[in-house]
Amino acid sequence: MRVALAERFAACGLVLHPQKTKIVYCADTNRKGRYPTVQFDFLGYTFRPRFTAWPNGTYGVSFLPAASRGALKAMRREVRRWGLQNRTDTALHDLARMVNPYIRGWINSYSHFYQSALHDSLRRIDFHLRKWARRKFKRFKHKPKRAREWLARIIKINPELFAHWPLLYANSRILGAGWAERLTSGSERARCCNSAAPLSRNVTLQDVPGDM
C-alpha cells in the first residue's frame, strides 16, 4: 500500500515523508484486525481506538481523536510556569483573570473530541490553587483538607470564576454528590473563610468574608 501511495503522490508532484508517513489501521468495534500501528498524532491530537458512548445509548470502541500526550504535557508545563502557589499577594479573582485566556484556549482547542482527556491536566490548576490557599491563609497552612473544602465551596458559589470549572464541575460530577451534600448541608462544619454564611445560589464572591 505504501508503494502505491508513493506512486500516486509522485504523479501529483508530491513526495511522502520517509520518517513521518505511517500506514495506520483504524481499529474499532467493527474492525478487529491486528496491525503494528493503530494510532497517529496530528495537530495536537492523538487518533486511536477509544472506549466511548454511542448515540444509541450503548458503549463500544471507536477510532477517535483526543488531546495528545505532548499537548497535555505542554499544558501542565505552562501551569507550573504560572507559579500560582507563590502568588500569595494576588487575590483569587485576579489569578483567574491572569490564567483564564490560556485555559479557554486549551478548552477551545481540545474539548471538541473526548474532552475527558483534559480533566487530569486541568485539575492540576486546582491543585496549585489549593497550595496557594494554604500559603495565603494561615488557618489552612497545616490543614490541607480545610483548603480543599474551602476551594470546593468557592466552586459551588462561583462555578465560572475559572474557565475550566464549568467543564470539570458541572452538576458536581467531579466533586461528587458527597461534596455537594456536605457543602449545602446545615450539619456540615466546614466553612469557607471561617464564614457562617449559608450557601445559596445567589451568593457571590463578594458575599464571602475574607480576602480572596
Structure overview:
The chain has a three-stranded antiparallel sheet. It folds into two domains: 2-66, no CATH class; 69-207, no CATH class. The protein has 212 residues and is mainly alpha-helical. The protein has helices spanning 2-11, 69-82, 92-110, 119-136, 144-157, 165-169, 176-184, and strands at residues 40-42, 45-53, 59-67. The relative contact order is 0.09. The model is unreliable at 176-212 (pLDDT under 50). It is elongated and about 70 Å long. The chain has seven helices and three strands; from the N terminus they run αβββαααααα.
Any descriptors?
212 residues, mainly alpha, 3 strands, single chain, disordered C terminus, 3-stranded antiparallel sheet, elongated
- Portion in helices: 40-55%
- Structure classification: mainly alpha
Taken in chain order, the helices and strands follow as HEEEHHHHHH
Report the β-strand fraction as a percent range. 5-15%
Oligomeric category: single chain
Taking all Cα atoms into account, the compactness measure Rg is: 23 Å
Low-confidence stretches: 176-212
Distance between the termini: 61 Å
Indicate how many domains the architecture comprises: 2
* Secondary structure tally, helices: 7
Shape: elongated
* Major beta sheet, strand line-up: 1-2-3
Number of strands: 3
